[in-house]
Amino acid sequence: MIIVDGTPISTSSQGRERLLVSLLEHPVLVSASDSFKALPQKKISLSDKWDSNGSTQFKYVYVFQREYAIVDPTRVKMVGTDEATTCVGLVIRHPVTGMTSVAHMDSPAVVDLGISQMLSFVIDSNTPTELDVHLIGGYQDVTLKWSNGKNDAENYSRSPGYSFPLCSKILEALQCSEEKFHVQTLCILEHNTIRNSVGTPYPVVTGFLVDTCTGSILPATFDRTSRGPDEIVRRVRVSVSSEDPSWKGKLLDAYDTCNDRFQIAACSWSPRWKSIAISLQQLSDSEILLNCSTSPLAEGPDFVDNERRLYDYLIRHPNWAETFPRREPRVFEWTAGGGWVRS
């Protein structure tokens, strides 16, 4: 069940698209979205490892596309994600225990099982309560149709965009759940869209950082040094996981909550990915954007380079067992000096 400003949102036969449109128009959520976008953006980089007092960098967990992580506030200070253009970052936090779950959703196909995965360590039978929820990312990547002065959700949902169907599915899953979800931030779609001088839409916010102790959330970006650990392998998993039946409909495991370490779960891929990668590597930068992105005009400046590094890895490692021998996870521990190191 979805709750906004203390009031449950009633379920009706209007459909999930209408549910989304009604929430987008809710004055409390509109105000919250505007306030969130007005916050200064936090830039995360491992090059800023030391603060003015010589203290080590705060401990954080980074979540890649199609991944999720559940973190304990007694162990991890921050958790976040970025690079979300048509994707949506979903935060579910227990306001009493502080257990915080973050996912980077990229498809309606992973929403149902993905939310179940996200809730596994967040729900506490000893302290039942409304769970705080934030949705950030996804933008108006198609033109919203209008009918009689109102949003025509049916026409919009059938258009070729990516963000609207994903946002609709997430909210439908939350509304149909037995858990109570207090939606506090809905910075998505039209509330997360800006247009340039010729009318091309771009997302305003593509990433965020959650303070697990306070529950506060800030817009954020991460540079290459801070998107770790095991950046390229985790990017490879996003591209090839659709072929691995063990991940069908699921979000990818990356962080071990109980043992407070990154545990990059195994993912297999067929040798044909080598030939696919060779073909893609031969494309121009603009062709890679057009063929490999759901939002070619809105990607960050390092998108193409990240794709090419991914292709290089698949060319050099056509056998997935080289990356995950005996299908065992790749484990990384936090060091006293700050940063995740493979153990």
Automatic annotation (TrEMBL):
PANTHER family: N-TERMINAL ASPARAGINE AMIDOHYDROLASE, PROTEIN N-TERMINAL ASPARAGINE AMIDOHYDROLASE
UniProt GO cellular component terms: nucleus
MF terms (GO), sorted A to Z: protein-N-terminal asparagine amidohydrolase activity
Domain of life: Eukaryota
Pfam families attached to this UniProt entry: N_Asn_amidohyd
Gene Ontology biological process terms from the UniProt entry: ubiquitin-dependent protein catabolic process
InterPro entries for this protein: NTAN1 (IPR026750)
The protein's name in its UniProt record: Protein N-terminal asparagine amidohydrolase
